[in-house]
Amino acid sequence: MGRPDPEEGQLPTPVKPPDGGWGWIVLFGCFVITGFSYAFPKAVSVYFKELMKDFHVGYSDTAWISSIMLAMLYGTGPVCSIMVNQFGCRPVMLIGGLLASAGMILASFTTNIIELYLTAGVLTGLGMALNFQPSLIMLGTYFDKRRPLANGLAAAGSPVFLSSLSPLGQVLLEKFGWRGGFLIMGGLLLNCCTCGAVMRPLDMGMKQKMGKAQDKYEAKEMLPIGGKSEEGISTTDGTKKAKKAKKKPKKGKKLLDFSIFSNRGFIIYTISKFILVLGLFVPPILLVNYAKDTGVPDTEAAFLLSIIGFIDIFARPACGMVAGLKWVRPHVAYLFSFSMLFNGLTDICSARASNYTGLVIFCVFFGISYGMVGALQFEVLMAIVGSQKFSSAIGLVLLIEAFAVLIGPPSAGRLVDALKNYEVIFYLAGSEVVLSALFLAVASYCCLNRGKKKEPPSENHPSAGGGSDTEEAESDLQEAEEHSSDNHQPAHSTDNAIVTANEEANHVAEEQSGEGGGCPTGDGEVLARDGSNADQMVERDSF
């Protein structure tokens, strides 16, 4: 991303993802950003007891710090989309890293809990949100065929950082107190700026440079050799300069593309994801207290979360590799549905676990299914909307998920206080996850697959379910090669400039034929091909 405005208000030519090279550096940056974004709100909980003592507040008051961080991460999705579409990924990530670090540094000097909400909660949460979403967008631009594996590896940052930041926070708390710990944590968050700096946008200007270098060669090929050729070149150059001087006002960019709501696959995904988030985070939040109520010691109860995190580390990359297989990737939405079904059934079957062995078994299967969901959630969204609209899609999806996050876990906590029974909560959470899985699978089959069978295939009709970017990138690459071989015209030039250049070339050719020189067959064919390509570009731009 981070792209400048092209001339004449035209969109830049899509570049085929390299699926490697510098993309691995981008992947590592996304791994770090994902780790900080998901693990940091949970890791700061080790400071809560000290904050309760210093500020004389309750546990629920300090818990709002993590809640505000997560609310900012999810709720500011559209804001991040607008900033990315306007300024690009790299500048937004650099600003986000500075905000996240500044929030924790300022939090170390606070004197009351309200100031903590504004600094560690709002400011740091906003900074992490400005890093998380652009990193996923950049990952989608650098990977296509290996994108499922890349998403799985990047998602593994969450359990890795959770298993490391929590012990680190405890050590910092014991040696430097909560203020010193916040200060050092703020310094660690500056690594987000480093990750943002490596998010180098793909070279969108390579084809423009090649087109300008071959401009005169194009005119020589199209026109007869002689003085008329030079005249045609000068006429074409003069026409282009005149067009640049009188160029039309630039078309405004769409800061947030709401046209994705016309995609049935996106609507199905959003509804199923909302239902999923209502119950997905409830079991790990209540697991430790549930284990303590069944008589499990505190240390062993806390170790249950470590089991989930350890299994999660390996489950996400493994699921990404499976999703990248040729015979699996076209059906990745159904694999995502299976992972949600697996997670929901795990909650339901383990609701009556009454001993530590049963809880350990639950944690193993929950870690596997939870890792599968984490590895596939954004891969499915990329497959549905494509990389070009992913920046707007993820912002809107995160905003909708924010409401589910604010509804699900708090409602479960109130039910526990009212019923004093964790079994009902596990049944309810598992049922919500199962419902989301069934909805995604049935709706995708009925609304998308049947629609594809009824509608005749056409080149300009996008599938309702989206699909992988591989075919889209290959078709764009083929069209770019045709344009470069036939008319050697830059992709960013306007349709009027193309038509004008062809008219000038035909005019010179007609003068030459009038003098008795005739027009060679090859030149006529070139002109015909140029005209057809101009029509194709007009049709593609209008589409």
Automatic annotation (TrEMBL):
- A GO cellular component entry from the record: basolateral plasma membrane
Q: Which InterPro entries match?
A: MCT (IPR004743), MFS (IPR011701), MFS_dom (IPR020846), MFS_trans_sf (IPR036259), Proton-linked_MCT (IPR050327)
Q: Which residues cross the membrane?
A: 21-40, 63-84, 91-110, 116-137, 181-202, 266-291, 303-325, 332-353, 359-378, 390-412, 424-448
Region: Disordered; residue ranges are 452-543
Q: What is its main location?
A: membrane
- Localization per Swiss-Prot or TrEMBL: Cell membrane
- Designated name of the protein: MOT3 protein
Print the organism lineage: Eukaryota, Metazoa, Chordata, Craniata, Vertebrata
